[in-house]
Design goal:
- 1% of the residues lie in helices and 43% in strands.
- With 424 residues, the protein is an all-beta fold.
- Strands 1, 2, 28, 29, 30 and 31 form a six-stranded antiparallel sheet that branches. Strands 7, 8, 9, 10 and 11 form a five-stranded antiparallel sheet that branches.
- The relative contact order is 0.15.
């Protein structure tokens, strides 16, 4: 979903290092951490607009997707899945798959997950048929001696079956996959579904059809909890739990987001914390004013209490970030790391109050959070519109994607995007 929400930055001419060569951005008073561009996309067959959840394997290789570029059968390209392998002088990109459009799928969006055998799983917004413009797919990419093999596990049919697969997937110990559709279902407001592996493929079941009320239109992945419970967010506008009961699931609203002070439009999934806590972000709302939206967005914590959940909220205020679209990363000691798509520095070619986005750290402080801005993107070589949840390696270094910016500013409107690392 993030890729579709991003605004474009303007064109700039700059002398850049070779594509794929790490570029370290200098430290300064306003940018004390060090950001390194690990890979800059070039558009075309290389891919453009990286976003969604990244995956890192034990060797340090990074797997991800680009929503555009690749095969030109689609308007902006049908999208790619890529692998970045670290080497002495640079990260080397390998395209694992280029989507073809149509029944094959197009516009991968929700990110990737990896199973114990190294296979990758994801969703595409486009592909299949019968929906305006198309219904979406679930796919896998399996490593073999001959290369990576792509397989469409399920093609959505629209209507009561659901469509609009913006969110990523969750996998359980049996290999079953869980996800959401933002549209369709029995009430037309989205579904939660399960794909169960069988001898002949995957069997799809609809776990829950969302009603057209405040818990409608889930656009993010689900969190798998104890005893098969599933936790998620609905765009309009709540945090919910789905609990298995006999042959069906029962929905419960854990918290309704009110806009102010706790935010609205949760595009990202919730993540788990100690003692049953849930953490998330909202794209709008909060207590601060942003020119083009109702509030600059929030980060929140829901803690189990006797009467439900108690809430702790941090409101962004534009200069310290605005419009977070992605999930948080919880580190040891309770620190939270994340990105916002707006706020921070003025962005070339963009309305000055919007900003290029930034990376932040939130630490518990009293009854709330204390924020440290880790890095403000400039929309040039270092990218703009950070578009993936941050991930961390064993040393604590952070990795993410910026959906626009980078050196190829003329090949894509506003740049084709980058993959970066950040040492906080």
């Amino acid at each position: 979903m993030a890729a579709a929400m991003l605004a474009s930055c303007g064109l700039q001419d700059e002398t850049q290092p070779p594509i794929g060569a790490p570029r370290t951005m200098p430290r300064s008073a306003s940018h004390p951490p060090r950001l390194t561009v690990l890979y800059a996309f070039r558009g075309g067959h290389d891919g453009a607009g990286p976003g969604g959840a990244l995956v890192m394997d034990a060797s340090g290789a990074i797997y991800g997707l680009a929503g555009g570029g690749g095969v030109t059968a689609c308007y902006h390209g049908c999208g790619t899945v890529f692998k970045l392998t670290p080497s002495r002088s640079a990260y080397k990109e390998r395209i694992l798959y280029r989507f073809l459009g149509g029944s094959d799928g197009e516009s991968p969006d929700g990110g990737l997950i990896m199973d114990a055998g190294g296979a990758l799983y994801g969703t595409t917004v486009g592909g299949s048929s019968g929906c305006p413009p198309s219904c979406g797919t679930v796919y896998s990419l399996a490593p073999t001696k001959a290369g990576w093999v792509h397989d469409v596990l399920y093609r959505f049919k629209g209507g009561s079956d659901g469509y609009g697969t913006y969110g990523g997937l969750t996998i359980d110990s049996s290999g079953a996959l869980y996800g959401t559709t933002a549209e369709g279902g029995a009430h037309g407001a989205g579904t939660a579904y399960k794909l169960t592996p069988t001898k002949s493929g995957y069997e799809k079941s609809t776990l829950f059809s969302f009603p057209r009320s405040h818990d409608a239109e889930p656009v993010a992945s689900l969190l798998l909890g104890k005893r098969g419970a599933l936790y998620g967010t609905a765009l309009f506008s709540s945090v919910f739990a789905l609990t298995p009961k006999s042959s069906h699931y029962v929905a419960r609203i854990l918290h309704e987001l009110s806009g102010s002070p706790d935010g609205s439009l949760p595009y990202a999934n919730v993540i788990p914390g100690p003692d049953g806590a849930l953490y998330g972000t909202t794209y709008e709302g909060g207590t601060s004013h942003c020119k083009y939206h109702t509030g600059c967005g929030t980060a929140f914590k829901l803690s189990p209490a006797k009467s439900g959940y108690s809430e702790t909220v941090f409101s962004f205020a534009n200069d310290d970030g605005a419009y977070p679209l992605t999930a948080l990363l919880l580190a040891k000691g309770g620190a939270l790391y994340g990105t916002t798509t707006g706020g921070g520095n003025k962005c070339p070619g963009r309305e000055p109050t919007y900003g290029c986005g930034l990376a932040f750290k939130l630490e518990p402080a009293g009854s709330g959070f204390k924020e440290t801005v880790l890095y403000k993107f400039t929309g040039r070589a270092d990218g703009a519109d950070p578009s993936s949840p941050l991930i961390a390696d064993a040393s604590g270094a952070l990795y993410g994607a910026a959906g626009t910016g980078g050196p190829s500013l003329r090949r894509c409107q506003g740049g084709c995007g980058i993959i970066f690392s950040l040492e906080p």
